[in-house]
Specification:
single chain, 258 residues, mainly beta, six-stranded antiparallel barrel, 1 helix, 18 strands, 2% helix
């Protein structure tokens, strides 16, 4: 059974009610985002139970108790699933997360804080994330290997949330579009918000060469916008033709609109 609901409503002036529900693989993302294009990229499905009580006169001040046995969050080909049951409560419409942890390939994340649906955010996310998640920020990263530490805060208005995050990495490998050799990253540090990603520093090697750099990329919604990166190169191998390889030293600038 995909969804089951039972409850009662009384005819008092405020119309108090109570309910219990159980659901399986419920597509949660359809309740929050009406953009079909974005829904095709991000999906959230949940299974579990929710019970609650309140009044129709003050529906936004509902009290809820929930235990979700299964939660799946998918972005393109990457999936996060819950690591243990997800527990949260709502008191007068304000949600508090009691327990929420997720896992994926080389990823372990914990959530805390709370939200007031359709009003404001107050979430904290901490943990270790697979380097593959850099594909979210730029399509120029085809894949990655390694684990980065993530601290993320989502606050402010429901429709216009503020995002603040820090990501750091020691020892990883990134495969970039249109470049044959993988980039071996010794260290990387970046900060980001809902509008801008700043690469504070990156150091590593590619083939026999070494590089260090910095830069930034803008966002328009969830989509990449104008970007610019500065790289200092030392003895960097470059494939000039199929049978000819050169070595480059100096400064390389990347700029573009998306």
């Amino acid at each position: 059974e995909a969804f089951a609901l039972s409850g009662k409503i009384t005819t008092e002036a405020s119309y108090p009610f109570s309910f219990q529900s159980r659901f399986n693989a419920l597509p949660v993302h359809t309740f929050f985002n009406k953009d079909k294009q974005d829904n095709s990229k991000i999906s959230v499905h949940a299974s579990g139970a929710i019970s609650g009580k309140g009044t129709f006169k003050k529906l936004k001040e509902i009290d809820l108790t929930s235990e979700l046995a299964s939660v799946s969050v998918r972005w393109k080909d990457y999936e996060l699933v819950n690591n243990g049951p997800i527990l949260f409560r709502a008191k007068k419409g304000v949600f508090a997360i009691e327990k929420a942890a997720f896992k994926g390939t080389n990823t372990h994340l914990a959530l805390s804080g709370g939200v007031t649906p359709f009003k404001e955010w107050g979430l904290l996310v901490k943990g270790d994330a697979a380097l593959n998640l850099l594909q979210i920020f730029t399509p120029r990263v085809q894949s990655g290997r390694g684990v980065a530490h993530l601290d993320l805060k989502i606050t402010d208005q429901w429709k216009k949330p503020k995002v603040q995050g820090v990501l750091s990495l020691k020892e990883g490998v990134v495969y970039l579009a249109e470049i044959d050799l993988p980039a071996h990253i010794a260290s990387l540090s970046l900060v980001f918000n809902q509008h801008l990603l700043i690469l504070e520093t990156v150091e590593g090697k590619m083939g026999a060469g070494r590089f260090s750099g910095r830069g930034k990329a803008n966002f328009v919604g969830l989509h990449p916008g104008p970007f610019g990166f500065h790289l200092d190169l030392t003895e960097m191998p470059v494939q000039l033709t199929r049978n000819l390889t050169g070595v480059v030293e100096g400064v390389l600038l990347f700029q573009g609109d998306d």
